[in-house]
Amino acid sequence: MLGLGAAGVAAAPVLQRALENGLGAVADKDPTGLTGLLPNGGGFRYYSVTTSVPERTAADYRLTVDGMVDRPATYTLAALKALPQTRMVRDVQCVTGWRVPETPFEGVRLSALLDAAGVRPGAKAIRFTCFDGAYSESLTLDQARRPDVLVATRMQDKPLAHSHGGPVRLYVAPMYFYKSAKWLSGITVTDSVRPGYWEELGYDVDAWVGRSNGRDDAPTA
Predict the structure, then answer these.
(1) Which residues form the Oxidoreductase molybdopterin-binding domain (predicted)?
(2) Is the torsion defined by CA of 144, 147, 149, 150 positive or negative?
(3) How far apart are CA 99 and CA 27, in angstroms?
C-alpha cells in the first residue's frame, strides 16, 4: 500500500499535465465550449471564441508594436525573452467564478515595450489583437503602464502552452482573466479605448477583480 501511494504521488504531476494538455488540445477544436465545463487538476478552463486557433512556433511567432509611437517594432519570441524579465505570482480569477491561486507568470513588462516604442503625445489607450483572428482587448495607457501587466511567455514556470494562449499572451494581474488576451500578436497605441471582444457583448471595459461585472470576488493576490 505504501508503494502504491508513493507511485501515485510521483505520477500525479505527470497525469495532471497530460490531462490539462489533452483538454486544451480538444478545446481548441470544440465549437460548443462544453470542454470548458470538464474538471481538471490545474483548475483552468479553456476558452476560445473561434472553432480553432493556428499554432505559432518560436520560429514563426511575431509581435508587432505600432500605432501612435515613434519607433514601431516587431519582436520575435527570442527577442522578447532576451529582454529583462519579471516574474510574479498572483491568483487568476475568471469572471465566470473559478479561481486558480498563486499562479506564476513571467515575461516582459508591457510598459517596457511602450517605452521602447516611444508613445506619442495624445495617446490614451492600447488595443491588443490576437492571431486567432477574432479576439481583441484594450487597456487605458495608465493601466497598461502598471508594473503588474506583462507580455507573458511563461506560466507555472514553464513555456506558455498553446492551450493557455502561447507562445505569448497578455497578463493583467489585477483584472478578470478575459483582459489577459491569449495568442497575442499586436499591440497598437491609440487615442481612445476601443472595447474588446467580450466588452462588445456587455462585459465591463474596466475589469478590476471584485469591482466590476457585478461581482464581489476578493482581489487577486
Answers:
(1) 52-198
(2) positive
(3) 19
Interatomic CA distance for residues 168 and 171, integer angstroms: 10
Residue 11 has pLDDT above 60, yes or no: no
From residue 188, alpha-carbon distances to 72, 119, 185, 193, 212 in Å are 9, 10, 10, 11, 25
Dihedral of alpha carbons 185, 180, 114, 152, sign = negative
- Band (pLDDT 50/70/90 cuts) for residue 190 is very high
CA distance 22 to 19: 5
Instruction: Count the neighbouring beta carbons within 10 Å of the beta carbon of residue 172.
Output: 25
pTM for the model stands at 0.82
- The Cα diameter of the chain in Å comes to 68
**What grid cell was written down for 176?**
478578470
Distance between CA atoms of 173 and 221, rounded to whole angstroms? 9
Cell 477574432 -> residue: 134
Asked whether the beta carbons of 99 and 221 are under 8 A apart, the reply is no
Quick: pLDDT tens for 110-122. Answer: 999 999 999 999 9
Q: Which of 148, 146, 187, 189 is nearest to 171 (CA)?
A: 148
Strand partners, 208: 175
Q: Above 70 in pLDDT, residue 109?
A: yes
Per-residue CA distances from 195 to 89, 92, 198 (Å): 28, 22, 8
Grid cell for residue 102: 498563486
Q: Is 214 exposed, middle or buried (0-12, 13-18, 19+ CB in 10 A)?
A: exposed
